[in-house]
Amino acid sequence: xxPTLAAVAALRQLGLRSRTGPLPDAPVVWVAVSELEDxxxxxxxxxxVLTTGMRLTSANAAAYVARLVGRxxxxxxxxxxxxxxxxxxxxLAAARDQGLVLLEVPRPTPFIAIGKAVSRMLAAxxxxxxxxAYQAQRELTRAALTGPGALVTRLARxxxxxxLLLDASGAVRHAEPAGARSxxxxxxxxxxxxxxxxxxxxxxxxPDDHIAVQRIGLGGRPRGFLAVGTDAPLPHAAHTIVxxxxxxxxxxxxxxxxxxxxxxxxxxxLLGRPDEGPSxxxxxxxxxxxxxxxxxxxxxxxxxxxxxxxxxxLDGHCAVIVPDELAGAVEALLPxxxxxxxxxxxxxxxxxxxxxxxxxxxxxxxxDVLHYTDLPGQGVLGLLEPGLAHAFADTLLAPLREEDLVExxxxxxxxxxxxxxxxxxxxxxxxxxxxxxxxxxELLGRDPDDPAVRAELWIALAVMSSxxxxxxxxxxxxxxxxxxx
Length: 485
Hints:
Elements lengths: L4 H5 L7 E2 L11 E4 L13 E5 L9 H11 L3 E5 L9 H10 L3 E4 L5 H36 L1 H12 L2 E6 L4 E5 L11 H7 L6 E6 L2 E8 L7 E7 L5 H19 L3 H13 L14 E6 L3 H8 L2 H4 L3 E3 L4 E6 L3 H7 L4 E3 L7 H18 L3 E3 L6 H4 L4 H17 L3 H9 L4 H8 L3 H15 L6 H14 L21
Parallel strand pairs: 2-3, 3-4, 4-5, 14-15
Antiparallel strand pairs: 1-5, 6-7, 6-10, 8-9, 9-10, 11-13, 11-14, 12-13
Pfam families: HTH_30, PucR
Protein name: PucR family transcriptional regulator
């Protein structure tokens, strides 16, 4: 949430004083300085407007206040000792009559100091939201490795509410808590609205419940639906978390099932293919890339758990295939640094690449053990099957490439939907950014302000950044978090 007007006014170094009574908890989304008689065409609502009253007269004060109130500004800061020694009584009376918060700005306080203070508060809030969302996404990714049920359980706990995973017909697959199962019947009309609309979502407000329902799947026929409910409306960060959950469930629904891949690997081995590989792992395994040389082989041979793990010396390091349930025990045996892949059941070459990337990062950061899923963004991307992922990315981004809008959308996604921040990152005016994003929305046929759509775009952009079979390498999302002034 943005800082409140009361929080801004409480900053002692600014010396702001309310002239209209107690301050409300109205959010301040930005600070706007204007000496126009009518600044409202340049405002969006929620701003703290600052003025010296250069064009203010006793005759136009009431109309000036009415325009600001109609635009929905957070409040008005009036500098005294510049044009007017005190706040004009007509302005003060109009503000009190029309419910506009009026702050007196002392002569020693420059407007830029107020703008910087609010920017710092916004940046702190933005960083807190991003950190909270990132940590939640990591937790969801780890849960997704166990299965959809674990992901739904983790999501409900992160939101402090309930969550339902429904199949395409509306039947309950997973419910957290169990009592949430009874809510499925009431959601049937909303599911009917969502079925023909890819990447769509609906929000409902019922007594004591705020509900969001999102469609799972990329094709014309939905793979299922995710519904969440909380006591209060979801904040922005929570929408991002729900979008990540939908993306993970969509990826799982569109990716070939693990058992099918394992059966294919076993059949290939029995038929004499592939040419290399002494055996097919039983169940999920992890690949460890170890820089310890022959000491790694000695350590494996010294322990019963390690003896079960085939190892292969490579150029400069050693690769070890470890059953997932033994990973922790084997990691403790081996000298560091060690890079650990995500769990894998079929493509061990990809798992080796993950482990080698984690090993490089571990050596650079002087860590003994580093998991690939702990690298930024790797948890989600690690669930993708490369062929399907690249086809998904190419299809989604093709219309944007034709209109040279890929970098615009990348900056908007990196800014988490904050238009001002994206415009600054691109070095363009916010109106230019808005026009480009409207065009992008038309081309995509979906709304980039929907967190689920932004999650899909982030994944597509990350996949597009690595054109080889390998995906998910460090730095896929080229745009870092835009700086707030």
